[in-house]
């Protein structure tokens, strides 16, 4: 049975007053900083300061929630929001038991009302991973309500724009968030252990890639029929592919997750297509579409049926990225020579 946490009457009253819009605000009296605090971290160009470790987290999306589980913070998660199309991530998660022990607060977009009702003192989400201008849920809006938040570094935005952009390489974004969260929650030792573990997994995967072999070109297919949705150079998928020994044909897209054109895919003629596995449609249905789509019939990956299916949680920033690099490396290393297409 999911854990139920008791909130202080003061926090519950503050949430109620804010949600009902009565104009009154109730705030806890300031308390001295906890031992080892305050700590300040840099997140997407903003300095965030915490006087004590947060205790009531609300989070959005599978990779984000799994990061908290990997850090051992499951008992501090008040609840999470996860769209139904990512249910398979829960089913195959190394942290499935953790998912089952924490309340799922919704299957749609995360909302201010849910955050306040749960008495959250920390929200972990990202641009297009819960934060959106059109829903009114942004870090600035939450700050106005007195709720601290942290932005997934894969999704950092530059300027006042609706385009999601990274500010560092995706694997470095993962390490940065682990280190920052470790400091915020007072679990830096665990964070450094994870970073060292993931670095070693990636190092070993990269060491298996032959230096004298041309890198197979790879296209990540997420979804879409009129236009394909894919990952650019700031999406975690880019480094999963490139560190695994592939050449990401969309690596020149200065964005994270975005659309491209089928004409571009055909022109760049990928040797392999990686399918992002979430549904609907299923990975099998996505592959069937690609194989039956007339403009792609002469693409090498289609002709030779070279498809690799990876889960959504492996392709967005999160603790499964390192293992996914090894999966890609093993698959590409097992391909016959690409000579002659």
Automatic annotation (TrEMBL):
Residues 1-24 form the signal peptide. Keywords: Signal. This is ABC transporter substrate-binding protein. It comes from Prauserella cavernicola. The keyword Lyase does not apply. PROSITE patterns: FE_B12_PBP, PROKAR_LIPOPROTEIN. It comes from the Bacteria. Residues 56-339 form the Fe/B12 periplasmic-binding domain.
């Amino acid at each position: 049975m999911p854990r139920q946490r008791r909130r202080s009457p003061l926090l519950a009253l503050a949430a109620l007053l804010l949600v009902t819009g009565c104009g009154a605000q109730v705030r806890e009296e300031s308390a001295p900083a906890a031992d080892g605090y305050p700590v300040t971290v840099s997140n997407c160009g903003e300095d965030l300061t915490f006087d004590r470790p947060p205790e009531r987290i609300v989070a959005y999306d599978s990779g984000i929630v799994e990061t908290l589980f990997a850090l051992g913070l499951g008992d501090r998660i008040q609840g999470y929001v996860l769209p139904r199309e990512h249910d398979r991530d829960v089913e195959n998660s190394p942290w499935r038991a953790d998912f089952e022990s924490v309340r799922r607060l919704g299957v749609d977009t995360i909302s201010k009302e849910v955050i306040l009702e749960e008495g959250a003192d920390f929200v972990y989400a990202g641009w297009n991973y819960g934060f959106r201008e059109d829903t009114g849920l942004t870090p600035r809006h939450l700050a106005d309500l007195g709720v601290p938040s942290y932005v997934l570094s894969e999704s950092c935005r530059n300027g006042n724009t609706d385009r999601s952009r990274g500010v560092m390489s995706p694997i470095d974004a993962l390490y940065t968030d682990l280190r920052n969260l470790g400091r915020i929650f007072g679990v830096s030792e665990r964070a450094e252990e994870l970073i060292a573990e993931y670095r070693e997994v990636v190092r070993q995967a990269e060491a298996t890639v032959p230096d004298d072999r041309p890198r197979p070109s790879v296209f990540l297919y997420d979804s879409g029929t009129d236009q394909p949705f894919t990952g650019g150079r700031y999406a975690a998928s880019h480094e999963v592919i490139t560190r695994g020994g592939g050449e990401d044909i969309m690596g020149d897209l200065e964005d994270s997750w975005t659309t491209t054109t089928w004409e571009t895919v055909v022109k760049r003629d990928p040797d392999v297509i990686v399918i992002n596995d979430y549904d609907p449609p299923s990975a099998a249905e996505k592959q069937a579409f690609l194989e039956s789509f007339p403009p792609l019939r002469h693409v090498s990956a289609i002709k030779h049926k070279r498809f690799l299916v990876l889960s959504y949680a492996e392709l967005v920033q999160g603790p499964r990225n390192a293992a996914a690099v090894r999966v890609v490396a093993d698959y590409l290393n097992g391909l016959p020579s690409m000579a002659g297409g």
